[in-house]
Automatic annotation (TrEMBL):
InterPro entries: AsnC-type_HTH_dom, Dimeric_a/b-barrel, Tscrpt_reg_AsnC-like, Tscrpt_reg_AsnC/Lrp_C, WH-like_DNA-bd_sf
Domain Transcription regulator AsnC/Lrp ligand binding, residue spans: 88-158, 265-333
Keywords from the named record: DNA-binding, Transcription, Transcription regulation
This protein's GO CC annotations: cytosol
Protein name per UniProt: Lrp/AsnC family transcriptional regulator
PANTHER family the record matches: LEUCINE-RESPONSIVE REGULATORY PROTEIN (PTHR30154), TRANSCRIPTIONAL REGULATOR AZLB (PTHR30154:SF34)
GO terms under biological process: response to amino acid
Natural source organism: Actinacidiphila oryziradicis
GO molecular function, one term: sequence-specific DNA binding
């Protein structure tokens, strides 16, 4: 076992990592090398991470430069009516799972790919535009992938929690509240309450530019889109505030000291589904929670530090909820693509890419 001082140091580093991530996400216009531009509500950074401003700035710059953390902006496919996410559990021939996973990371409509253990070998999140697109995907495109032997699909009906609003509680509540007060996007709304306004041609260009580089300066953004800086800022702000465009700090839970990632497939009594979802959505271990149509009617992604913590989550947290009839547990082994960002690991993996379809 590590000495107490070492464990404390590790926890402090994790807190600093997440603090840096939150600071970068909190104010899209702030430069990671110029923390003075971050709103005054976020001035007490020292108390959050135990580090001085210069230290946090240095750590954040280093973290972002390594690619361990990405700050991304993307269109919400549900809010903009551009599609529906579908989770596909893929079964592969022996020895073919990595090849299949690498191939799927290159699909532009695929936003998430992970090698998993359990009933499937690979888990994929794909955005489909309509039922015809889903038909083509499941009956034509996926069966043609070399090495696949079968798949099952779960269509997302409603989101209750997403990575955009995930709070693993590495920071004190006042610190989290202060950080979030400076955000211009709807981090607090997993499911759009109403459709976002129809996007104009200028909005489309703004969304594309911000998807490719969410840290772009307002002046540079305006020049690229071909509008005045005040127009670019106003229209981009409207996109964020309407829920059409979302900001997210993309980081693997393992980087925050939460290496045990699990995907849960639940069968819940229909009359209890909303209640169960609301009770689970705010749990710090829950990154994603959605109701689905398929073999199961709810799915979740959970990240914890140890297998003991997973056992406690399954037996105490979920075990205490009425209405859960069955849970299928799939352990995440390695994530190759998250939020449309590819993280190469195996030979032949595709380089980092993004897709304007965005989060949803």
């Amino acid at each position: 076992m590590l000495p107490r001082s070492s464990r404390a140091s590790i926890r402090a580093c994790r807190g600093a990592v997440f603090t840096s991530c939150q600071l970068v996400t909190a104010d899209r216009s702030a430069d990671v090398s110029n923390w003075a531009r971050i709103p005054p509500a976020q001035a007490s950074r020292r108390s959050w991470s135990g580090s001085a401003s210069a230290t946090v700035s240095r750590r954040a710059a280093r973290i972002l430069s390594t690619g361990e953390v990405h700050v991304s902006a993307s269109l919400d496919v549900l809010a903009t009516g551009r599609g529906v996410p579908v989770f596909v559990r893929v079964r592969c021939l022996p020895g073919k799972a990595t090849e299949v996973a690498n191939a799927l990371t290159g699909w532009p409509n695929v936003r998430f790919v992970s090698l998993v253990s359990g009933a499937a070998d690979c888990l994929v999140e794909i955005v489909v535009t309509d039922r015809a697109d889903l038909l083509t995907l499941t009956m034509v495109q996926l069966p043609q992938v070399d090495g696949m032997v079968g798949s099952s699909s779960e269509v997302v009906l409603r989101r209750f929690a997403t990575g955009v609003g995930w709070n693993p509680q590495l920071l004190d509540p006042p610190a989290v509240a202060a950080l979030r007060s400076g955000r211009m996007d709807r981090w607090d709304q997993a499911q759009p309450s109403s459709p976002a306004p129809e996007l104009s041609a200028v909005d489309e260009r703004l969304a594309l530019a911000l998807t490719e580089n969410s840290r772009i300066r307002w002046g540079e953004l305006a020049e690229r889109v071909g509008v005045m800086q005040s127009t670019a800022r106003r229209r981009a702000t409207n996109l964020f505030r309407s829920g059409a465009l979302r900001l997210r700090t993309v980081v693997e839970p393992e980087a925050l000291g939460l290496p045990v990632t699990t995907f849960l497939w639940l069968r819940v009594d229909p009359g209890r589904l909303n209640v169960v979802a609301q009770q689970l959505a705010g749990h710090p271990a829950v990154l994603l929670l959605a109701s689905t149509a398929g073999e199961h009617n709810m799915c979740a992604e959970v990240a914890v530090a140890r297998y003991e913590d997973l056992h406690a989550f399954l037996t105490r947290t979920m075990g205490a909820l009425d209405g859960i009839r069955d849970v299928d547990v799939t352990l995440g082994l390695h994530t190759l693509k998250r939020a449309s960002i590819v993280r190469p690991w195996f030979p032949g993996a595709v380089g980092a890419t993004t897709d304007v379809r965005g989060h949803g």
